[in-house]
Amino acid sequence: MDRASNRIRAPPSSSASRQTTKGDKKVNTEIKNGQASCNEDEVHYRFTAYVVTAIRRSKMRYLVKKRKHESLLSLDQLLEENGDQVQLDVDAFADGTYSAEFQEIFETGVLEEIIGNDSLLAAVLKLSDRERKILNLRLLQNMKHEEIGDLLGIKKATAEKCYQRALAKLRNYLEEGLF
Amino acid sequence: MNEFKRTLLKAQLGDKKAAEQMVELYKGLIIKESIVDGVFDEDLMQYLYQVLLNAIRTFRV
Questions:
Q1: pTM above 0.95, yes or no
Q2: Residue B36 burial (CB count, 10 A)
Q3: On the CB side of A64, how many CA atoms lie within 13 Å of its CA?
Q4: Would you kindly state where each structural domain of chain B is located, as residue ranges?
Q5: What pLDDT sits at residue B40?
Q6: Residues of B in contact with A56 (CB under 8 A)
Q7: In sequence order, what E strands does A6-141 have?
Q8: In 10 A of CB B1, how many CB atoms?
């Protein structure tokens, strides 16, 4: 395509409208052509505006997503690195005889102790007790939602929802801290 | 119908050559927008090309 023809042209000059007073057929034709050209140019203007807006918005979305990805330390990754420090005697739990270690995990916030990242720790501390307990049990002990539900006296679905909500809250807190 | 509108309509109808012409027309904008903090981001450029092609498809003439 010829580049010059693609260039956004200025809208037809106002001289065309001034000529309407003459009432000449030829002039009227020119005016009509001018209007047609204006309408066609309008497509070019509108499309350019559409593309520019779409590109800028997409760029913003891309950058926000990229920054989140780079900055947010994955909770799973963090716990993979530190989570094996604590072992739970699941069998003892199943038998109803909780180990002392488990009691400690359950009562105190072991999750908070092993988190080295300050912003993540601050975010965890903002969670409710129940959410912290559920995170402890789920992430450190790899317990099933059903087991967590039994332990806390809530339904499996409630435990699962509470866990998802806690993770979402953590993400929100971290994002707020970053941006 | 002017050249631009014709090319845009052809591109919307699946004419590859017309789509290439449209992409060529907005290449400069895409390259400019692909530079973030003075660094050229190739992934962003690819993404913006997708956005442009999508815009060509969805624009209502």
A1: no
A2: 13
A3: 9
A4: 3-58
A5: 95
A6: 33
A7: none
A8: 12
**Per-residue buried b or exposed e for A160-174, using 16+ beta carbons within 10 Å of the residue's own CB:** bebbeebbebbeebb
Q: Which of B51, B53, B56, B57 to mutate to test the interface with A (most CBs of A within 10 A)?
A: B51
Q: How does pLDDT run across A106-116, given as a tens digit for each residue?
A: 555 566 666 66
Distance separating alpha carbons of residues A59 and A61, to the nearest angstrom? 5
A13 token code pair? 């000059």
Token pair belonging to A105 = 């995990």
- Helices A118-125 and A156-178: crossing angle, nearest 10°? 130
List the beta bridge partners of residue B35: B40
Residue B22 DSSP class = H
Distance from CA of A149 to the nearest CA of B (A): 44
Instruction: Write down the ipTM of this complex.
Output: 0.94
Q: Cβ B48–A52 below 8 Å, yes or no?
A: no
- The whole-number pLDDT of residue A42 equals 85
A137 and A104 Cβ atoms separated by less than 8 Å? no
